[in-house]
Amino acid sequence: MEYLHFARSESLLVKTVCAIVVKGYWDKLLKPKIGSSVTSSVINQVLSEFSANGFSVSWAAQNLVEKIARRDFLLSPTVLNALVNSCSDSDVNAHVLSWLVIFYADSKMSSEAVQVFEHMRVCGYKPHVHACIVLLNSLVKEGLTNLRDAEKVEELLIEMESNNVVPDIFTYNTLISLYCKKGMHYEALCVQDRMERGGVCPDIVTYNSLVYSYCREDRMREALRLFKEIKGAAPNHVTYTTLIDGYCRVGDIGKVLQLRGEMEASGLFPGVVTYNALLRKLCEEGRMGDANKILNEMGDRKIEPDVVTCNTLINAYCKIGDMRSALKFRNRMLEAGLRPDQFTYKALIHGYCKSKEINSAKEINDDEAILALLDELVQGGICVDISVYRAMIRRLCKKEGIGCAERVFGAMQTREILGDTVIYSSLAYAHFRVGDAVSASAFLD
User: Fold this and answer.
1) Which of 247, 274, 388, 419 suits a disulfide with 423, CB 3.0-4.6 Å?
2) 170 contacts 162 by C-beta, under 8 angstroms
3) Transport: present as a keyword of the record (predicted)?
């Protein structure tokens, strides 16, 4: 009796779902009372009903699955089989599952799309070319988070080649760029070879990605060789800036200046990103005079400094203890409408904490400056790591600014940042020095 009741209930549910699909009452299908009862068996029977009554199975599957595709049970092999078991036509089944791959990929559910794709391969169904392209683009856009994703891209490319379909230049460039950014240089070159064999010529975007890949590994000789071999495209700002930045990082200023000369001779003039690379290298070497000459050149050419420019100079001045100049550039940022970020404050705070100069009465007190920066951090909602708080607390404790140090410690706790051994030891030692053993013990407990 129980089985008969269940069978009648399921039969009624199947008819209900069929009616919903035909009339398009999808909101009813998604209601818990009906939607929660839809199983692989129900899906199978619904598709069988449509097939028996002359409806296209692929049409039925698309309309039915579109509304419930996000439900986890659809990804099980049992359910995937149920979607195609009602029809013996392999072309129809390939269409249904290919559509499901596209649906998941377009919904940014790449892992689910891959599962359906794998099921098709296991069952011998040939994915549609469009499904391969959509899935390939989806995997590339989501960043190839693991080796398996990279292997899946390779499989997709082979699948497309077997169907005489070649991805477009945008897809190839996106894939090459992603491989290059992840340090997968061999894979990037393999894609370049594949695209050229497919009759797709590399453009400057392709070359820029490959040049960047060499530069990030300090393989400047190979980067320069590739640069000289560029054909069918003209180097642009990105090309030259990437090379200039690479040579800056390896310390070849002579080559940097040569490339800048070539860049300008070709009618391209350095922008703020190019200048930032030059400034970073000069500041790293402590050549502040030359750095300021570059800054003046930017002004002469009406190139406005950005946050990176200012942060580079602020950090450099902080490292040599010239806090006046560091503050000058912080103020310049504010005047230009640029917002100081975590890096700005971190550099300034560490600069003040490391400064050993004894300020005169007319100059701002370091401790006051540190607390003022802390207030700015809090008001701006900027989060910094524990190293900044540690530096502030150690500095204040050494100068017996216990009250200020505890204020910093309080701000740290407000942000739920746990103190470490250095912080607690610094506060405890500061209290011991002024004879407050009770407070000192509290920090050591």
Assistant:
1) 419
2) no
3) no
